Write a sequence for this structure.
């Protein structure tokens, strides 16, 4: 016969005002197996917990029920107290008689609430009687992290993890780390030069001996679970031996072929063997194989001749590297929506219509014009520039429904840069709303308008066309209620931030969620902003949605702190509420495997003595299982049970109702 | 209304003159509309106070000159007291009036006003009116 104790909490007046706790305790004491009952004002208080411990010891209780608030609130408290009194913590169960009982019933005679509390507690007693003592699951943790994406968020995460004394692998798709931030000229609202604040961090990441840089590489495959991931990384062939290259740049100088530079957004050309920008990290050039005549047709080879240390190898092949890591930080960043989608703005057709990112390059001292604002068509200094905001953003029909968040700020910055560089030049800005939430952001925009004389016009532009070498912009100013026509020299589009191409494929590879715009989902938008539903995988930066540099950096650090917390112990303890497969009845239909949202179900083979596979079985990976119970519902042969919530327990509870 | 906007409009000499007379900076206004909302006489104005500032920002002095707004303003300074940016539309309207009156082409002579009217009008109206129309 079990020896169960029932503790009914009054929760001040929270429960007691609509539930007669004394009566609940009294009714429970009549049930078989219940040897101790009581009610108390605050069970969660220290005296309340002491009372629970004492009752367990004195009455030799083998199961405890606390009828109180939601298990989310105090299950941990009471389980800890029970454990301290020598009871298996999973022999302590909570009945929620507050949130869905006392709070929702207004019957001051306490009739309804009391009856319901009695029913609920009785059900829990029946469930508890069939409980089995459980032990926390221990999982070994491999103390090495993988950071995917070498933009500012990824660099920050890698640096912080390395600072915390753990090894990090930083994987970057491009030949250099730095990401989109490396392209920017100045940064709002302080106007410090982007390169000047970014490159020291890039170099720090390169020199830090705990950080392994894999540039020009991509994550191909991810297996495993929290603490124990196995990752395959494709290291694309650079055709240059990274270890021997001195970064002298002779090869780049001698290369006779030029193609459009992606880093400069096609504003200028680069050589076929190249580094994306002068401060590239690592400072090792790569050969753009599809455009290299030597690799394609075996003609040329000038770079190899020029190379002093002879580190160019035209036969180099991609390498697959396998790494074992305990945690993954995803910081894959963003890209811009193609401007060509908006024909009315003439991008691609009219040379002097450029994107905001291209303007960044024009304004950058390391850019194609050396920091002079010159328009692409004829190289003239534009005397009037029209900036168009919300190109694709807040455009449900042709673009995206969300606000790209940073365009208001960088457009204000552009107008400032322009007015500082071109004296007497006039900037016009077409906007819908100015969204300048952030420390000193609003003041920054006002400075652009009041001090640097940017003309802000509230309205969208509906047409842009060329006339006599100028670009005519037709829009509206709703503040004066008029249609506005401006003959400008150049037009700059503030294009929407969208998720990276292939963001969904990577998410599927990692088993993390993404939204309709293919931005990755955080576990909880407010309280767990850098975690994903897959334990051990964290997020940072714009792969989650548009954000500015300070936010991305903060998230990089936040993700790093989560990784370091995970790595702080050799083993990780997890709640044992996981699924378990009955090996005798499982017939390997794999319904559970398709149903599991966490990919926690694996195929297990049963072999005979000769090593032949005789049977297949579903197996639950306890490291991954979150105990949601979907597999239990999906299993047609009733071969899966959830520990702590077995079918037997649930049916017993229902029968007791 | 269709408006062709150019660099000359934005740096209009006429607007700068109004700024000099009034001591206000038209660019400071962020068009919240508080002045128009509180103005006790804006219902009589062809262009409400906030839009007067907007036209000045756009360098459209003619539009403002053609409207009755500056003559309707009673100079109560409610617009100034409520403006979150500390801009006085009243001062701008005063400056606009001055640019007309200083030409000396069209103004009222007090002694030409009919005596019964002067007798009937409240004192405040006369103070306001003389300041506004006489120069």
């Amino acid at each position: 016969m079990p020896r169960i104790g029932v503790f009914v909490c009054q929760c001040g007046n929270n429960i007691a005002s609509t539930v007669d706790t004394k009566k609940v305790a009294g009714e429970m004491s009549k049930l078989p197996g219940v040897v101790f009952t009581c009610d108390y004002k605050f069970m969660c208080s220290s005296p309340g917990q002491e009372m629970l411990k004492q009752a367990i010891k004195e009455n030799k209780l083998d199961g405890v029920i606390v009828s109180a608030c939601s298990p989310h609130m105090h299950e941990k408290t009471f389980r800890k107290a029970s454990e301290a009194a020598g009871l298996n913590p999973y022999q302590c169960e909570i009945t929620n008689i507050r949130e869905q009982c006392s709070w929702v019933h207004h019957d001051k005679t306490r009739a309804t609430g009391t009856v319901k509390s009695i029913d609920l507690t009785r059900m829990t007693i029946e469930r508890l009687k069939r409980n089995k003592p459980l032990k926390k699951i221990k999982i070994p943790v491999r103390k090495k992290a993988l950071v995917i994406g070498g933009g500012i968020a990824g660099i920050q995460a890698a640096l912080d993890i390395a600072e915390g004394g753990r090894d990090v692998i930083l994987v970057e798709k491009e030949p250099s780390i730095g990401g989109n931030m490396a392209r920017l000229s100045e940064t709002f609202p302080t106007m410090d030069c982007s390169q000047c604040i970014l490159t020291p961090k890039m170099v720090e990441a390169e020199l830090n001996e705990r950080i392994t840089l894999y540039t020009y590489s991509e994550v191909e495959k991810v297996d495993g679970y929290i603490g124990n991931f196995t990752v395959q990384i494709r290291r694309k062939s650079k055709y240059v031996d990274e270890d021997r290259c001195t970064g002298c740049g002779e090869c780049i100088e001698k290369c006779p072929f030029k193609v459009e530079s992606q880093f400069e957004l096609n504003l200028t050309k680069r050589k076929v063997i190249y580094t994306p920008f002068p401060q590239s990290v690592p400072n090792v050039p790569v050969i753009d194989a599809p455009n290299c005549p030597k690799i394609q047709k075996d003609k040329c080879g000038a770079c190899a001749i020029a190379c002093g240390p002879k580190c160019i190898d035209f036969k180099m092949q991609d390498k697959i590297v396998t790494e074992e890591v305990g945690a993954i930080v995803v910081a894959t960043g963003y890209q811009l929506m193609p401007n060509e989608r908006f024909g009315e703005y003439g991008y691609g057709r009219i040379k002097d219509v450029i994107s905001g990112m291209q303007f960044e390059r024009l304004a950058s001292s390391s850019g194609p014009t050396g920091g002079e604002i010159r328009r692409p068509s004829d190289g003239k200094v534009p005397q009037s520039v029209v900036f168009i905001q919300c190109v694709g953003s807040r455009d449900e029909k042709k673009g995206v429904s969300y606000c790209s968040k940073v365009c208001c700020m960088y457009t204000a910055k552009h107008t400032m840069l322009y007015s500082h560089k071109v004296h007497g030049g006039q900037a016009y800005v077409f906007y819908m709303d100015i969204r300048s939430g952030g420390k000193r952001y609003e003041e920054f925009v006002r400075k652009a308008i009041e001090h640097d004389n940017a003309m802000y016009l509230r309205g969208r532009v509906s047409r842009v066309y060329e006339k006599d070498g100028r670009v005519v912009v037709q829009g509206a100013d709703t503040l004066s209620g008029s249609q506005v026509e401006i003959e400008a020299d150049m037009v700059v589009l503030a294009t929407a931030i969208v998720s990276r191409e292939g963001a969904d494929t990577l998410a599927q590879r990692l088993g993390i969620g993404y939204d309709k715009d293919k931005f990755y989902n955080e576990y909880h938008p407010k309280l767990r902003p850098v975690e994903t539903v897959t334990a051990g995988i964290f997020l940072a930066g714009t792969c989650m949605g548009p954000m500015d540099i300070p936010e991305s950096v903060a998230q990089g650090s936040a993700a790093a702190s989560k990784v370091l917390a995970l790595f702080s112990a050799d083993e990780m303890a997890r709640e044992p509420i996981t699924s378990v497969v009955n090996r005798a009845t499982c017939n390997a239909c794999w319904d559970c495997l398709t149903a599991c949202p966490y990919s926690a179900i694996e195929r297990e083979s049963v072999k005979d003595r000769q090593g032949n596979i005789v049977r297949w079985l579903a197996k639950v990976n306890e490291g991954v299982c979150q105990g949601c119970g979907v597999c239990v519902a999906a299993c047609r042969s009733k071969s899966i049970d959830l520990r702590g919530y077995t079918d037997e327990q649930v049916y017993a509870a229902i029968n007791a109702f | 209304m269709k408006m062709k906007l150019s660099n000359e409009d934005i740096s209009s000499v006429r607007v700068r003159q109004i700024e000099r007379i009034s001591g206000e900076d038209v660019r400071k206004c962020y068009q919240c509309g508080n002045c128009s909302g509180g103005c006790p006489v804006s219902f009589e104005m062809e262009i409400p106070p906030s839009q007067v500032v907007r036209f000045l920002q756009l360098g459209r002095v003619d539009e403002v000159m053609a409207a009755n707004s500056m003559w309707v303003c009673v100079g109560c300074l409610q617009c100034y007291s409520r403006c979150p940016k500390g801009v006085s539309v009243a001062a701008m309207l005063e400056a606009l009036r001055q640019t007309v009156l200083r030409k000396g082409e069209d103004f009222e002579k007090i002694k030409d006003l009919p005596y019964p009217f002067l007798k009937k009008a409240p004192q405040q109206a006369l103070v306001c009116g003389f300041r506004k129309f006489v120069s």
